[in-house]
Write a structure and sequence with these properties.
about 110 residues; alpha+beta; two-stranded antiparallel sheet; 3 helices; about 55% helix; about 20% strand
Length: about 110
């Protein structure tokens, strides 16, 4: 078992080493060039990019059934749309569906 003095000394060493590590991270981030920051942001955006999903026939039929049900019952519907690598969710009551232009009016 450690004495109080040994414990205090060990605690001080751990605290000082943590301070040094924290300062190193702050210093490295402050020294980054704007070009590097831009490249990192672009890389993060590319990692978040979602490919356009290809839906199977049974999935499309399920979506159609859900749309018909929400039109008949006039209840709120959440519509999840893929746009430029991201999914957007639109919520509302479906008033009208234009099958020619493939638009849903909330």
């Amino acid at each position: 078992m450690m004495s109080k003095e040994e414990f205090a000394e060990r605690q001080y060493q751990v605290f000082e080493s943590a301070k040094l590590k924290d300062r190193a991270n702050k210093w490295a981030m402050a020294m980054m060039m704007t070009e590097h920051v831009d490249l990192i942001k672009k890389e993060i955006e590319q990692q978040k990019f979602i490919k356009k999903p290809m839906l199977e026939v049974w999935e499309l039929q399920g979506i159609q059934e859900d749309l018909e049900t929400s039109i008949q019952t006039k209840c709120d519907a959440d519509i999840k749309v893929w746009n430029d690598g991201k999914f957007e969710v639109h919520r509302g009551i479906i008033n009208k569906v234009n099958e020619n232009t493939r638009q849903i009016f909330l």
